[in-house]
Amino acid sequence: MSEPKQFKKCQAIRGTTDFAQDVLSKFNFITDKARQTALLYGCEEINLPVLEDTSVFVRAVGEVTDIVEKQIFKAVRAVAESKQDIALRPEGTAQVIRYYIENALNKKKPFHKLFYTGPMFRGERPQKGRLRQFHHLGVEAIGGTDTVLIDADIIALAVNMLDASGVKNKTVKLNSLGCHADKVRLTENLKTALAPYKDELCPDCLRRVLTNPLRVIDCKEKKCREIIKALDFKDSHLCVKCKDEFDKLKNVLRSIEIAFEYDPFLVRGLDYYTNTVFEIVSSDLGSQDAVGAGGRYNNLISNLGGPNIPAVGFALGMERIMLISKLKVAQPVIDIYVAGHNDNYINERYALVKFLRNEGVSADMDYCSRSLKAQFRAAQKQDIKYIAVLGDDEIKAGKIMFRDMMNSKQEMLDKVEIIKRLISFK
RNA sequence: GUGGAUGUAGCUCAGGUUGGCAGAGCACUUGAUUGUGGUUCAAGAUGUCGCGGGUUCAAAUCCCGUCAUCCACCCCA
Q1: How many structural domains are present in chain A?
Q2: Rounded Cα–Cα distance for residues A323 and A321 (Å)
Q3: Domain interval for residue A362
């Protein structure tokens, strides 16, 4: 029996990434910034499982979207204990709503603002800013009122999160799809209006007319854009109430100085959106230029079997933030390196390292019995600023040589003095 | 799912057209009168040439297949 050769290669799953310290430092820093911003806006943080019943997404996101048609990763146990259909979550909103309904949060409080982070999974073909396991920062504001006053707050929160994450170059695109009735009317109008152009639309749009007519509106194909532009429907699909609400939203955003662009060609792919939709794009990204998006979804909760409660939310793509964030995040550096000669006085060095760590000072040492020179090189390479040398002279004097690597000065100190020095330098 | 490019040392890449000893720079290890880093100099170690098959006396190089990565489409945040 020979080993099967296809298992020889050690390789991460396609579209997944390993975070090393340098990337992870930035990831954690940005997550903390986003969390602090969410708390400023009165959010509670929740952390929901990666595993979720597939039907939650099918019912919420829509059956004809790529996300549920082609991209869901399924979780399979070696020994099945039930026939439950389990997915690795492809997005957060549907799951948050499942959590909201399951725990009857509407009975505890009329209004919830929930912040969440975590990995999402979609079986896409990887490219820049698009992975199969990626990370979202999301907020859902559920209940309260269905008016745009909440929408403005949520858009402002998304913008402020990106500001705090060091994303400078960004544009908020804004549109309203109208209420459910408006959306249905728009879809029907589009189908009718596009019928004469069957021969001119791109193949993708021909398909979209049947599956998801709204998506024809944001097609990138030149010809399709011209056709849509010529139809010049803009906000004509909005009923009086929805148009009024949309105008109000724009006014509030202006009053709190959130810059936005009205984009009548902006639609969102997921079924659950109604009224306000927005997208935050950055020209610093490649062709995947959306760094975040969201909108209002007034029918989702009742569609999933919950009470008739309106909601609005958004999600930001962590990997895309990382691509364009201007933040420079400091890497963790050890405070002091304990050096000696080969393995002379190794027990004393171990004891010193232990003492330093107990005092809250990060410390490390050489474990390979290397020369003093090699140990200095190792410390210098890690940007360690201070070295403690323990050798014959120090043991005789009952002290420790404390060297400042930046100005190359050193002096004999005892261990308590070293702690005092290091803490004063911090 | 579609199209294009790429895959050689830890990293960045030469070599490939025209088959003939596996290379460079950076990084790494060691040393330069036996207790001190950065600069310099010297020496050294490091390979499944993505993987599998085919052609050939001989394949990193030519052919077929496959996997992966990148870019764009599509989709989405």
Answers
A1: 3
A2: 5
A3: 336-425
